[in-house]
Amino acid sequence: MKTKALKLPALLIVFLAIFTTMAAKAQTKAPWVAPAAAQAVANPVTPDAGTLKAAKALYITNCAPCHGEKGKGDGPAAAALNPKPADHTSAALKNETDGSLFWKISEGRSPMPTYKNVFTPAQRWELVNYIRTLAKPASKNTQAR
User: What is the pTM of this model?
Assistant: First the structure.
């Protein structure tokens, strides 16, 4: 009886060690690249003051906790995440197509959730437009207020 009692904790420790190792390996992922077909999709939503304002509200509530209010990847939850959230003001993000950003918002990748069942397609395109404003200097035409 004593042997069985000792085996259970030992098995639990082995399981936790394996799971922790697998989780650590899963967090060191390859670069996140959207499929070519997704990259080629054009944004059908033209940014305007109204859609940017609505997208900013969505961003602040849903994206800023990780990406930060200014999109630098420094939100309050960012420190606990691996991989770290993307910097929406970075050169790498500026070089991504709107279709790529739309796909990433839609599909998600741990620790980022998928938003295709949370936001409508129009809202996701509006978020792409809003994210684009984070990398630009504020102006009357591009910055949501």
Answer: 0.74
Contact yes or no for 123/55 (Cβ under 8 A)? yes
| Long-range contacts of the stretch 23-30 (C-beta < 8 A, 24+) | 26/110, 27/82, 27/83, 28/83, 29/83, 29/109
Name residues whose C-beta falls within 8 Å of residue 13's C-beta, 6 or more positions apart in sequence. Answer: none
DSSP-derived letter for residue 33 is -
What pLDDT does 30 receive? 85
CA dihedral 33, 55, 120, 96 (to 10 degrees): -20
- Residues 41-68 have pLDDT tens digits of 999 999 999 999 999 999 999 999 999 9
Burial of 13 (0-12, 13-18, 19+ CB in 10 A): exposed
